[in-house]
Amino acid sequence: MESEPKKETEVAPALIAVHPDQSSVAVAVAVGPHLRVFDLAAGSAASLIDDSDAVPFHKDNIRAVRFAANGKLFVSAGDDKTVKVWSTQSWRCITTVSSEKRVTAVAISNDGTFVCFADKFGLVWVVDLDPPLLDKKPAPLLSHYCSIITSLEFSPDGRFILSADRDFKIRVTNFPNKPLNGAHQIQSFCLGHTEFVSCLAFVKSSQECPQGLLVSGSGDSTVRLWDITSGALLDTCEVAIKAGLLESNGKAEEHGHAVTDLWTVRDGLLVAVAIQSLHGIVLLNCNVSSQTLSVAKVVSVAGEAFVPTCLGSSSSTGNLWMVTGVSSLPGSNNPSLARVRVISGIDGKQESVVLEDESIPGGKKLLETLQGTASVDDNAFLAAAEAVKAAMYNLLIKKQYPSENREYRKKSRNDRKLKS
Amino acid sequence: MSETEINPTISKSTGLPRKRFYRARAHSNPLSDSHFPVPISPSQVDYSLHYPQLFPSSGQADSSKKIQFADVGCGFGGLLISLSTLFPETLMIGMELRDKVTEYVKERISSLRIANPGHYQNVSVVRTNSMKYIPNYFEKGQLSKMFFLFPDPHFKEKNHRRRVISPFLLDEYAYVLEDGGIIYTITDVEELGDWMKSCLENHPMFEALTEKELEADPVVKLLSSATEEGQKVARNGGQTFQAVFRRIVPTNQAS
Ligand SMILES: C[S@@+](CC[C@H](N)C(=O)[O-])C[C@H]1O[C@@H](n2cnc3c(N)ncnc32)[C@H](O)[C@@H]1O
User: Fold this and answer.
1) Would you call B159 an interface residue with chain A, using a CB distance cutoff of 8 Å?
2) What mean pLDDT, rounded, does chain A reach?
3) How large is the ipTM?
4) What is the pTM of this model?
5) The domain that contains A22 carries what CATH number?
6) B46-247 adopts what CATH topology?
């Protein structure tokens, strides 16, 4: 197994997560199996401690990272079929959960007591962190039948868990008091995307809308706004067209402009959107009372090939962190690649600017830690963006096989081979 | 009807499509990729295609009337045909994964419509994978009855996840069923019968119908007699195992 060459789908995009505290006390980047954390308060790399194993802590590509809403926990998970829960105080791994299948997404309940993760077969599992034992058994929570779950998210009031999949679906499920018995009550399905759903984020609750509004991004090059109580589609923003990436008659078959990540700032009144092929981000205004999305502006990264693969920020600093990169470049000896950039003034208080390396929080030291190197080769990042795009395409887009190919595919399918 | 004379796939004596022209593989793998169109959401199901006499204008579902019965894995459609006349005011649909079998049911319905003007207008069939696309066809609480008659048994333990009744799929069925809606299951495979019953018993949103309720429900009698599979089992003198449950509001929100 180990020596087998990696398939294209096994290329993983670089990920970023930012501690939710105002001061952004830590920033984490995951690229390939490597997890790197920079402690902004200390001004140095955090050293992660995991009793159970040697470095790297994950044995295969990391597919999901996130901080708990209260900032006390951090979770990393991925293709090595483990979910690791870290204390952000000590950066010690407090629990390693084994999954039967590869892990595609994680979420932490708002009170920090439950970690949920989705596996490659569309099953969502839940782990009770109380009491915090080293070896925890997950219980099945819900399932998307034979789909790949791309994103998991709790609603701001904690009542619902949302799961998005490659079959264009977003499911909103009541998160029960005793989730270890499963989550059986479906509140709604948000249906309207015409390609895989890639990312979810919330516009925080307000008086007008206690549940909060949901925004989702998709392979159909749109960002959509939803009422999760009813599943009603409130608005659709053709971000790729609006950002000038696609002609308005652009064909749906063209998958070059999938929305890959979303991040809400100012409680969601602004939504930062990463789109494949866009060297920068699109900022959307979300108007809660009229329930509409509109493009505020496009912030471009000039001077280098920077197509963000993941976004993050803390609640109110006005800095949007972006990473681009890939676990490995197929056909190249390059190890993993990661590049971090920051846009300041994202909260609209000042003009938004893409910060130069020397002026980003943590400076060169942070970049060395998170990127693995301070210097970057521009060409490699162009290739990285292409590799990430191809991997996403292969993993999530439905292929239409002509019938003669279908028979062939059946004969050569891997799961059949394994049996014999 | 001159049309049936030139069409060899239609039987001269009955005017119905001949099954031998619609033979298909015995089993389909519900896990394989889809090759059929799927509506993006229930509001995009084109009722005028399914029920042309009741919805003459093309376009989206008239909000006044919606499909209320779903026969999941309907096979050759025998149950739907019986239900169509028993509940002439109710819209019903069969969901079937196999292409040829779906085509057969379509032909069967259109022949019946031609032979019996004004009847069978409330019944239709769609080719789809019910295990993936139920929420694309029905809204929350839209259905009053769901049928799972003689589903494929998938004996091997590792294939249990292919079964159409499973703890997770019941969450979706509970979602599309209205409060008080009924789920009907029957099989001639004892092990599968036990499995379906225990899945339903263990689910917080279903409760079994009482003996009295079962007797009073005219549909229960059809379970073993109306479908092709049921008739085959009856001919061979086989035993059947049924489980009929009602969708309830869970007593404890937490469960
Ligand atoms: C044994 S037959 C029973 C047919 C019919 N209910 C009867 O009683 O005669 C089971 C049927 O379910 C269909 N089926 C299996 N999995 C399905 C799925 N996921 N979605 C729709 N139909 C399915 C099969 O193609 C087959 O026609």
Assistant:
1) no
2) 86
3) 0.89
4) 0.90
5) 2.130.10.10
6) Rossmann fold (3.40.50)
In a domain, A419, yes or no: no
Establish if A9 belongs to a structural domain. Answer: no
Lowest-confidence range among A22-26, A87-91, A129-133, A150-154?
A: A22-26
Q: How far apart are CA B13 and CA B19, in angstroms?
A: 14
List the structure tokens of B108: 């069967």
Q: Confirm whether residue B73 is marked as ligand binding.
A: yes
Cα distances (Å, whole numbers) of residue A178 to A69, A181, A226, B54, B202? 20, 6, 27, 46, 15
Question: Which residues in chain B belong to E strands, given as ranges?
Answer: 67-72, 91-96, 123-127, 143-149, 177-187, 206-208, 241-247
B222 annotated ligand binder? no
Q: Mind listing the pLDDT tens digit for each residue in A185-233?
A: 999 999 999 999 999 999 876 776 777 899 999 999 999 999 999 999 9
Q: What pLDDT score was predicted for residue B228?
A: 93
Structural domain for A44, as ranges: 15-398
User: Sheet holding A320-326: strands in order across?
Assistant: A310-312, A320-326, A337-344, A353-354
Give me the number of domains chain A comprises.
1
A181 assigned to some structural domain: yes
Residue A5 falls inside a structural domain = no
Ligand 1 atom nearest B151 alpha carbon: 10
A and B: number of Cβ contacts within 8 A = 73
- The Cα–Cα gap between A363 and A357 comes to 6
State the pLDDT at residue A9: 57
Paired tokens of A216: 């989702």
* Token couple for B252: 């404890």
> And the tokens for B97?
């994964």
